[in-house]
Amino acid sequence: NNSGSVVDETLQKALEEIDQAARVARRAFENRISKHITIQEKCQDEFVKIEQEFETKKLELTRKLELATKKHADDVAKLKLDRDKKIEALKQSIRQSQYEA
Length: 101
Prior knowledge:
Low-confidence stretches: none
Distance between the termini: 148 Å
Number of helices: 1
Strand content: under 5%
Largest sheet: none
Mean pLDDT: 95
Order of helices and strands: H
Number of strands: 0
């Protein structure tokens, strides 16, 4: 009977050691998972930041392009107006010189 209790005690001790080792392994696994989750969250945050920065810069460039396009159109319109005025002045000058001749 006494040998049965020694076996039970040995088995109980082995089970406690296995249980302790399992708890340690589980904590280590949970820590690793936690670290990976933290890294993943940081990467996702960085990705969002990069995308927002890209969209902001793209919007700025689009605005600059629109302003440059408008300025170009305004400059061309002024150039045409100036050309038309010069042509009209030339026509007037020709008419006047023909009238005087």
